[in-house]
């Protein structure tokens, strides 16, 4: 059929835009699940207005920040991967109030995997240094 979908009040998105938001909402739901598997205290509080996209899709698309008894995150956004990893890096390592669930993967394992991948990507290619081009 194609075309666009109306979300009310003259606001419409084409199918490609809708698919991008649905993909982001599904990734956000995955990040929320990883965070709650990491620590029962972590929660994602809406920060800002409530959009029609979240209401329409049922997926977490409104801007959120992370909160727990130790800290309130100073970063919020619609892409929760960045928000959650920023919060984790600043507040979670060594936290004595952490209430883990024991389920894996969790936010810590995902964060560490990302850090490992970044370190590998930063290493210069083996054997290419010092060779004439």
Fold and architecture overview:
The chain has helices at residues 15-38, 52-57, 80-91, 107-122; strands spanning 4-6, 12-14, 43-46, 64-67. The chain is mainly α and 133 residues long. The protein has one domain. The strands form 2 sheets. It has a two-stranded antiparallel sheet. A hairpin with a 5-residue loop joins strand 1 and strand 2 (12-14). The chain is globular. The N and C termini lie far apart (54 Å).
SSE blueprint:
Layout: E1 4-6, E2 12-14, H1 15-38, E3 43-46, H2 52-57, E4 64-67, H3 80-91, H4 107-122
Antiparallel strand pairs: 1-2, 3-4
Please write the string of helix (H) and strand (E) elements: EEHEHEHH
Helix content: 40-55%
Mean pLDDT: 88
Number of DSSP strand runs: 4
List keywords for this structure.
two-stranded antiparallel sheet, 4 helices
Concise summary:
The chain starts with a strand and ends in an 11-residue tail after the last helix.
């Amino acid at each position: 059929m194609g075309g666009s979908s109306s979300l009310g009040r003259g606001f419409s998105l084409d199918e490609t835009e809708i698919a991008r938001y649905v993909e982001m909402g599904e990734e956000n739901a995955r990040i929320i699940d990883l965070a709650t598997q990491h620590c029962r205290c972590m929660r994602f509080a809406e920060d800002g207005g409530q959009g029609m996209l979240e209401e329409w899709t049922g997926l977490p698309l409104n801007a959120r920040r992370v909160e727990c008894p130790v800290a309130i995150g100073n970063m919020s956004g619609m892409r929760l991967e960045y928000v959650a990893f920023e919060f984790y890096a600043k507040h979670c390592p060594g936290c004595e109030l952490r209430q883990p669930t024991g389920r894996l993967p969790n936010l810590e394992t995902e964060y560490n995997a990302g850090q490992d991948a970044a370190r590998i990507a930063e290493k210069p290619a083996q054997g290419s240094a010092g060779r004439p081009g």
